[in-house]
Design goal:
- It comes from Candidatus Promineifilum breve.
- The protein is of the alpha+beta class and about 400 residues long.
- The protein has two domains: about 130 residues; about 210 residues, no CATH class.
- Helices cover about 50% and strands about 10% of the residues.
- It contains 14 helices and nine strands.
- Strand 6 and strand 7 form a beta hairpin.
- Helix 2 crosses helix 10 and helix 10 runs antiparallel to helix 11.
Length: about 400
C-alpha cells in the first residue's frame, strides 16, 4: 500500500490544467507573483487561452454531435509546461505490470503520478463502455493499495475518487499513443513566467483572428461564429443543421452536445465557455506583465461569459419542456459528480436513463412544429452572432492592451 496521506488538492476542474494545478499545489510549488499555488486560470492562459471553435460530426450508429471548442486545443499540455520551463519525466510501457511498478515507484518517492486513462474506462464517470469510443486524459493518482484493490485519484471532482487496480490498468492501456503513460513534473522556472504569459495571450489573439495552425479557418475564432450561424439558418448546406440535426432525436443530440461543451466541460458553477476563468488569468497577467489594460480585457471576457450563458438558455430553453428538462438533468448530473464523485454514480445512472428517455420521446414526438424549428434555429443563430459581437469587442480590447 502506497498512499500520500496528506494529499488534499481537488480544486482542478479540467483534465490538463486542473491536474497540473493540483500537482503543483501538492508539491508546494508557488507562483512568483502571488506566493500561492499556480492557479488553473494562469495555466489555461499560458497553454493558449480561450478560443472559439465549431465542428459537427455524424458517425454511423451514434447520435450526431455539434462540438464547441472553448479553449486552445493545439498541444496545450506541452505548450503550457515548456513555456513555464517544467521538465517532464515521462515513462511509457506496453506492459501493465511494468506500468504498475512505475506508478508505485513514483508514489513511494512521495510524488503523485500523472497518468493518462480512458474516461470510458473509469467507472466513476458513469459512461457505458463502447468499443468505438475512447478519450485519454491525464488524472492524478495519489494512492495505490494492491491489498484492498483500490486506487485513489484526483480527477475534476471536489473529493478523491476511487477505482480498482484492474480498472485503472485497463483504462491506461486503452489507446496506443498514451498506453500506460506516466509523468512526474519538475518545478516551473519563475523567470520564464512573463514570456509564457505573453506567448499564451498571443496564441489566443491569433486563434480568434487568424488562420489556425491546422484545419479550416471557418471552424476557429470569430469566423466560427459566422460559420455556425450559417449552418443554423441555411438549410441546403451539407453540414447544415437541417441536414445533420433535423427535428427529432438528432436535433436534441446536437443541442445537448453544444450545451455540454459550453456549460459543463472543465467548468464549475457560474462559468460559461471558461470565459470567467480566462478573465481571471488576464487579471493575473496584468500584474505579471505590468499592463493594466488587461484588467479591462478581463471585464470584457466576463461579459462574454454572460453572452455564452444566454446562448445555453437559447439552446435548451425554459419554454420547451423537454429541452428545459434536458438542461436541468445535464446540470444536475455534472454537479452531482463534482460534489460527490463515486457517491453520485447511482444518481448519474438514473439521470442518464431519463436523458435516454427524452431522446426516444424526441424522435417519436418532437415538441416543435416544422415552422417552430426554423424559428428556433434562427433565434439560436442570432444569439451565436451576439456572442460573436461581445467576443470581438473583448479581443479588440485584449489586442490593444498588448500593443
Amino acid at each position: 500500500m502506497t498512499i500520500l496521506e496528506a494529499y488534499q488538492q481537488f480544486d482542478g476542474r479540467h483534465w490538463e490544467t486542473g491536474s497540473v494545478a493540483n500537482y503543483f499545489a501538492y508539491r508546494g510549488l508557488t507562483a512568483p507573483h502571488t506566493g500561492r499555488p499556480y492557479s488553473e486560470a494562469l495555466l489555461l492562459g499560458v497553454s493558449g487561452g480561450a478560443v472559439m471553435g465549431y465542428f459537427s460530426f455524424a458517425y454511423e450508429g451514434y447520435d450526431p454531435m455539434a462540438r464547441i471548442l472553448t479553449r486552445n486545443t493545439f498541444d496545450p499540455w506541452d505548450t503550457m509546461l515548456s513555456r513555464l520551463g517544467v521538465a517532464q519525466n515521462v515513462q511509457h510501457t506496453a506492459k501493465p505490470a511494468t506500468a504498475e511498478r512505475n506508478l508505485l515507484a513514483a508514489l513511494e518517492e512521495g510524488t503523485p503520478a500523472l497518468v493518462w486513462a480512458d474516461v470510458w474506462g473509469l467507472p466513476y464517470n458513469g459512461l457505458a463502455f463502447d468499443d468505438g469510443m475512447w478519450a485519454m486524459f491525464p488524472v492524478l493518482v495519489y494512492g495505490y493499495d494492491t491489498a484492498a484493490d483500490r486506487v485513489l485519484i484526483a480527477d475534476r471532482a471536489r473529493l478523491g475518487l476511487t477505482t480498482t487496480t484492474g480498472e485503472l490498468a485497463a483504462a491506461r492501456g486503452r489507446a496506443k499513443n498514451n498506453k500506460h503513460r506516466l509523468m512526474t513534473l519538475e518545478a516551473p522556472d519563475p523567470a520564464k513566467l512573463p514570456a509564457a504569459v505573453a506567448a499564451g495571450i498571443g496564441d489566443c489573439l491569433r486563434l480568434y483572428t487568424e488562420a489556425p495552425p491546422r484545419g479550416s479557418k471557418n471552424n476557429f475564432g470569430l469566423a466560427a461564429c459566422h460559420w455556425w450561424a450559417a449552418q443554423l439558418t441555411n438549410p441546403r448546406g451539407r453540414t447544415s443543421w437541417e441536414r445533420v440535426f433535423p427535428a427529432g432525436r438528432k436535433m436534441l443530440a446536437g443541442l445537448s452536445s453544444v450545451f455540454t461543451d459550453v456549460a459543463l466541460f472543465g467548468l464549475d458553477k457560474g462559468d460559461y465557455a471558461g470565459r470567467k476563468l480566462y478573465a481571471d488569468f488576464l487579471d493575473e497577467a496584468a500584474g505579471i506583465l505590468s499592463r493594466p489594460g488587461l484588467h479591462s480585457a478581463a471585464g470584457h471576457f466576463r461579459t462574454a461569459a454572460e453572452a455564452w450563458r444566454e446562448l445555453t438558455l437559447a439552446l435548451l430553453p425554459d419554454a420547451v419542456e423537454p429541452l428545459r428538462l434536458t438542461r436541468e438533468l445535464l446540470l444536475r448530473r455534472h454537479h452531482a459528480f463534482l460534489a460527490r464523485g463515486n457517491g453520485a454514480l447511482d444518481e448519474m445512472k438514473a439521470i442518464d436513463a431519463q436523458l435516454d428517455a427524452l431522446m426516444v420521446a424526441a424522435e417519436a414526438d418532437f415538441p416543435l412544429s416544422a415552422a417552430e424549428v426554423v424559428a428556433f434555429r434562427q433565434r439560436l443563430a442570432e444569439q451565436v452572432l451576439a456572442v460573436h459581437d461581445v467576443e470581438a469587442g473583448a479581443v479588440a480590447v485584449l489586442k490593444d492592451a498588448m500593443s
